[in-house]
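Human:
Care to share another protein and its fold?

Assistant:
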Amino acid sequence: MILAAEVEAFLNGELVEFSTLHGLPVAPWMVLNRLAHTDPDALRRLVRDSRSRGDGPATYEPPWAVAERSLTMALLGETLRSGHDVRRVQRQVLVPFELQTIERSRTEPLTVHDVIAGVIDALAEDRRSTES
């Protein structure tokens, strides 16, 4: 039963929440999960809601949340500049990159920084390849 719930969380872009709720470690590649699978409107809300919290007292955010939001802003900014559809970028760039990163993490240690840099590079490569 828990495996089915974990798979559902993965496919819905909610794997970090699932892991933290169940006391499981958050692997660096998981910061990419929401970005690769969540509805574009939900991604926009994530960025908008984080900006509206900026007026109140500082609150602790786990590193994965900061990385997730940064990657979301990069994706939305890139698609706005290029005119590409978020869903297309998710399907053709982010999901394959997520799967490659999961596989890579099995043989070498990865940091959140590695994942962020890889996503930024993948988005830039996608832009270059579609501009040609």
